[in-house]
Amino acid sequence: MTMKISRRGFLQVGGFSFAVAMMLPRVAFAARNSLKSMRTGVQPGNKTRLVIETSSKPSYSLSYPENQLVVDIANMSADSSVKPTLASGTLVSELTQVQAGDHLHIVAKLRKPIAKLEKSQIMLLEPNGDNDYRLVFDFSASATTAQKIVESVTAAATTKTPPKKHIIIIDAGHGGKDPGCIGKGGTREKDVVLSVAKRLQSKLNDAGFKTYMTRRDDTYLKLAQRAEYAEQKKGDLFISLHANANPSRSVKGFSIYTLSEKASDEEAKKLAESENAADKIGVDGFTEFERDVRAALSSLQQHAVAEMSEEYANGCARAFRANKVEAQPGPSVRHAPFAVLRSTVPGALIELGHLSNSSEEKLLKNPDHQNRLVAAIVRSIKNYNFDV
Ligand SMILES: [Zn+2]
Fold this sequence. Notes:
Number of strands: 15
CATH architecture of the largest domain: 3-Layer(aba) Sandwich
Distance between the termini: 12 Å
Bound molecules: zinc ion
C-alpha cells in the first residue's frame, strides 16, 4: 500500500506573520517540488489548521519531536522568499524551513503538545484556480498534554507503545422483513451476509481490532440507522456486506462499491437503487432516508472520506483477488449513491458474490468459502493504512 502520500485539503489565512528561513545550497534534481506558501488558521472547535502549498503533489512524512510537528517534504529546497502567515489563537507559534539533504522540513513549533495525527486530520487538495497543491493538517492540543507528546515521541523511537485499536463497523445487509435477494435454491442474502459478518467479527477481534456489528440477528434496520451507528461508535472503517443478484444467471463474482452521487455505470446505478430500496420496506416510510448525513459535511470532509474509502476499496479488491475469489467482469471497484455509505466513516459496500448464479449460491452458503471471503476482508483491513 502506498504510504505517506497525502490526501484532502483546504485553506485558511490568518493574521500576523513572522518567519525564519534557512537557505542552503540547491541540489540539482529532476522533478523538483517547490514551496509556494505556508500558513495557519483557526477552525471551528478551536482547531489549528496548518496549510502548506506546493507546486507539485508533495511526497511527505510527519514526525513529532518535542513540541514540534515536522512535515518532511521530498525533493524540495528551502525558499527564503516564502514567509509564513500565522493566525493568532493557534497552537503554532512559529513555522520554519530547515533543509535536510534533498528534503525540506517544515517545522511547526507548538505551544502545546499534540497527539500523532490520524489520516482523517490530513488532507491534500488538488490545484484549483488560485492555488497549487495544498497539504492541510487540522489538530488540537492533546487531552493529557505532557503525557501524549512523550508517548508519541517514544512510539516513534521505540514503537513500544501499543497501537490504538482501530474500530471496524461490520454491517450485515438487510435483515428482518427485508430478506435482500434470494437465490434459486432459496438462499437469502440476509442470512448469508449475517453468517459472514459473524465470522468476520471473530477474525477481526483475533487480529486486534475493535469491532461493532450493526445487527447480530435477524433484525430489520434502516440504512440511515446503520450509517449513524457507525458514526456513534466512531468507526475507522465501515464494511457493509451484501450478495448480489443479476437478471442474467450466468453472471458471478464479487464487486466492491464506494459512495458517489453519480453512479460509475448503469449496473452500479441499478444496484444502488435496489439496495436503497431496503428503506422503502419500513412502515414509517421515507423520512429518514432523506436525512442526508453528508449534507452536513463540508465538501472537503466529503472529499476526505471519499478518498479514504477509495483507497480501502481498491485494497479490498486486491485482497479478494489474492485470495482467489472470483471477480465480477468489469471494474472491481465501482461507485454509486448507496444510502448506507452516507456517513463520516470511510468504508465500502462489498457484494460478496451472486445468489442469482446457482454455483455461486452454493459457494456463498459454504462455510469454507465464507471463511475464504472473511480472510480476504481481514487481509484488506490489515493492509489498509489507518494512520499517516
Ligand atoms: Zn444487499
